Amino acid sequence: MTQTMRKALGILFRVIAGYLVCLFTMTEFVGRLPANMKLGILMGVSLFAVVALLIALALIRFASWQRDTGIVLLGASGVLVFTIFSCACFLMDETFRKMMPLDPLALFDDYWTGCGVMAGFAALGWILARTDRGKTGRGAAREKGSAAPPANTSEQ
To answer: What is the pLDDT along the chain (156 residues), one digit of tens a residue?
Structure first.
């Protein structure tokens, strides 16, 4: 398999993993499901998300796995925030509300759990992305013994 194919498939599986993490987090907003049904859905979705992410990381040979995992979690949280904002904008429109036969938010009523899980994934993604930052970029150049770019110390 060529390097380009590995990268392309890695990106595809990271997108799939991000979508499944987003779906997992969106399920946390649903409060009216029985606990055992919700747990089954969450376990199934999280299993597929982990498998997709592991495939993506294996394709890049687990190089910078922390950064990639962090980006997936941050991206999924960002997509979900955008989705929530879009739904809120739709619901502000009187015409849209008249077209809906039932209350579209009747199923999504567990805001505390959903927002907590979404914030937790975003925080974990931020931590993972920041942890790997020291291993790449300027930190890696200093570890290898090469000269780092001089700091701008001129005073104005």
So the answer is: 788 899 999 999 999 999 999 998 888 888 888 888 888 988 999 999 999 999 999 998 888 899 999 999 999 999 999 998 998 888 888 888 788 777 767 778 888 888 999 999 999 999 999 986 666 554 444 445 445 555 555 554
Instruction: Please indicate, yes or no, if residue 148 is contained in any of the structural domains.
Output: no
CB 99 within 8 A of CB 46: no
- Dihedral sign from CA coordinates of 26, 31, 34, 36: positive
Query: Which residues, 6+ apart, have CB-to-CB distance to 4 below 8 Å?
Result: none
Question: Which residues form the domain of 64?
Answer: 3-133
Beta bridge partners of 30: 108
- Please report whether residue 140 resides in a domain: no
Going by the DSSP 8-state scheme, the letter that residue 105 receives in this structure is: T
List the one residue out of 87, 66, 80, 103 whose CA is nearest residue 27: 80
The count of domains in the chain is 1
- Residue 20 domain-assigned (yes or no): yes
For residue 141, give both structure tokens: 């150049």
